Q: What sequence folds into this?
């Protein structure tokens, strides 16, 4: 819904400039009563006065009017999913142009702009031209800067800062990522205890259901982070086979204990793929096949109906309400068709060249490609 907040904006600007209603009225050649009625929503100024007011306060007419196009969370979800489907089924530039038009239309709706940044970041790799990919990343960076500069909601700004860092990483600007994140990402900082303090506060207030729900959310998020962190750690420690094997052993125990393949199949698939990559890198044929089998199993589960969506399980039984409150709800950030296309390419990596022609590998590859019929 489009909102015009002229009265509040005029009152704010007049007070910032430290002038009275009468002084403003004299400048415009109207009565003090007219200015009073504008500020109390009883009337609006003549349209010809708007440029004069904007010049007087050194702002744009849009800012003066307090024009802030807003759309609901449900509308944001609907638009996101339509655009994600478009990126999977239509020419990239058509959907990019459509999304850019929506950005211009809702340039002050910061929750929406943040989701557009996420959408672009999830699809910037669709065009094969590297320069075009970098162009999309630069557009995301620019839009994030707009959000950070103009949005007054701390959580949205923090997310925009994180997205901007992701973009810089994709652009190879590692030093700038470190500069942005090193200060605010301190595992030893006092703020790292906020989650536990909030849970304890809920308990002290007798709000045990809130404490239970929030605890599950924290456990779920840390579980996802631990599996995701292990994927990164295997890449970092690739040369150290012994260390990688210990990491694989420990995370496999976690995956089994928390049924991660069902709860978070995307994370499980990434972990098993990276484990297979480690063993393939070290020329360990049988171990590579074992991990690839687990990878395909996770992919099969991932591509089943609704499994791409965020969900809990009988143990994490308080997550539904939290998931529904997320900006995209339970919906995946990329369309299933596009997810599957990227999975198809995963076994083409050169690291698996030494087993490409083996019957075992061909069977795994055939199984992966056949998952499309189950999706």
A:
């Amino acid at each position: 819904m489009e909102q015009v907040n002229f009265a509040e904006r005029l009152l704010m600007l007049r007070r910032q400039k430290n002038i009275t209603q009468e002084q403003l009225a004299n400048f415009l050649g109207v009565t003090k009563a007219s200015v009073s009625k504008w500020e109390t929503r009883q009337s609006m100024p003549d349209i010809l006065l708007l440029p004069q007011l904007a010049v007087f306060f050194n702002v744009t007419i849009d800012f003066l009017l307090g024009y802030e196009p807003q759309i609901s969370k449900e509308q944001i979800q609907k638009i996101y999913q339509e655009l994600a489907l478009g990126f999977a089924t239509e020419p990239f530039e058509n959907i990019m142009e459509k999304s850019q038009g929506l950005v211009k239309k809702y340039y002050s709706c910061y929750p929406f702009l943040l989701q557009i940044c996420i959408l672009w970041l999830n699809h910037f790799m669709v065009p094969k031209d590297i320069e075009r990919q970098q162009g999309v990343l630069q557009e995301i960076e620019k839009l994030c800067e707009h959000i950070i500069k103009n949005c007054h909601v701390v959580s949205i700004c923090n997310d925009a800062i994180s997205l901007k860092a992701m973009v810089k990483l994709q652009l190879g600007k590692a030093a700038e990522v470190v500069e942005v994140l090193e200060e605010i990402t301190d595992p030893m900082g006092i703020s790292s205890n906020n989650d536990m303090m909030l849970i304890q506060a809920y308990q002290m207030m007798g709000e045990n259901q809130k404490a239970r729900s929030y605890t599950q959310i924290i456990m779920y998020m840390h579980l996802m982070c631990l599996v995701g962190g292990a994927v990164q750690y295997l890449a970092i420690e690739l040369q150290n086979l012994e260390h990688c094997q210990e990491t694989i052993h420990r995370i496999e125990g976690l995956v089994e204990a928390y049924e991660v393949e069902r709860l978070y199949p995307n994370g499980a698939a990434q972990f098993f793929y990276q484990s297979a990559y480690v063993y393939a890198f070290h020329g360990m044929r049988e171990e590579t096949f074992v991990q690839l089998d687990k990878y395909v199993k996770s992919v099969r589960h991932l591509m089943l109906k609704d499994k791409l969506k965020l969900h809990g399980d009988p143990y994490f039984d308080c997550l539904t309400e939290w998931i529904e409150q997320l900006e995209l709800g339970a919906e995946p950030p990329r369309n299933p068709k596009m997810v599957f296309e990227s999975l198809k390419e995963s076994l083409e990596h050169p690291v698996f060249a030494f087993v490409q022609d083996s019957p075992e590998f061909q069977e795994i590859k055939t199984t992966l490609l056949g998952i499309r019929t189950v999706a």
Observations:
- The chain has 20 helices and two strands.
